[in-house]
Design a protein that fits this description.
23% helix; single chain; 7 helices; alpha/beta; Metallo-beta-lactamase, Chain A; seven-stranded mixed beta sheet
């Protein structure tokens, strides 16, 4: 599979027979050059969304309309995006699993918040979440925006993810030290990819603390639009 960082918390996951966009933010994303936006979303077969904040949802409706990719995520949020014109996918709840061709995606807890601007008013969008995505004989944990949480204990034990895509920029989420602690205590990753960092000055700019905290784990500092093959 190929994991391609689009900057911030956005990813393109080429896995099995799917091209899955996760929280694609391609317009105004400081990390993604404007001329790369089309390539970032080309051929998308599905869009997964973790929570409602603008840096995760601002472009979803337009991308869905352009590519035809259905949008799936937490019930209230996905329903709201469908109501705005996104192609209908699955509106499901934590613990639920959906099939995306040869791939499955399970909604799992996160610890953050979730709201979205609707007609100029901030609206609550249900529970924030992450995903366990399984395909090609592997499991990828997409943490979404989150802090360390006790739920990571059973999530690691039950799903046994091989790859962790972890929010680790601090301020809005756990930082690099927190991500290293969580990965070491609750999971047995072979590969860890940090995200939600470097975008703004108030976020962490380097993953060195995460690298130092996880000896023996392949910690990959992603580069925008460069595939990480696992």
């Amino acid at each position: 599979m190929n994991i391609i960082w689009l900057g911030h918390g956005s990813f393109r996951l080429e896995i099995g027979d799917q091209v899955i966009l996760i929280d694609p933010w391609v317009t105004g994303n400081p990390m993604l050059p404007e001329d790369q936006a089309s390539a970032a979303t080309a051929g998308a077969t599905h869009i997964l969304v973790t929570h409602g904040h603008f840096d995760h949802t601002a472009d979803i409706v337009e991308i869905s309309k352009t590519t035809g990719a259905p949008v799936s995520g937490p019930y209230e949020l996905a329903a709201a995006l469908h109501g705005q014109g996104a192609t209908e996918g699955n509106t499901f709840g934590r613990g639920g699993t959906i099939a995306l061709g040869d791939v499955t995606a399970t909604l799992v807890p996160a610890s953050h918040s979730s709201s979205m601007q609707v007609d100029g008013v901030s609206r609550y969008m249900g529970a924030e979440c992450g995903f366990m995505i399984k395909g090609e004989g592997k499991c990828v944990y997409v943490s979404g925006d989150t802090d360390i949480m006790a739920d990571m204990d059973w999530m690691g034990d039950f799903h046994k993810p091989d790859v962790g895509i972890l929010s680790a920029g601090g301020y809005f989420t756990m930082d690099m030290a927190g991500a290293a602690y969580a990965a070491k205590r609750y999971f047995n990753f072979s590969t860890v990819i940090p995200c939600h960092y470097r975008t703004f000055p108030l976020l962490e700019q380097s993953a060195q603390t995460l690298i130092d905290g996880l000896p023996g784990v392949n910690v990959v500092e992603p580069e925008v639009m460069q595939a990480i093959t696992v």
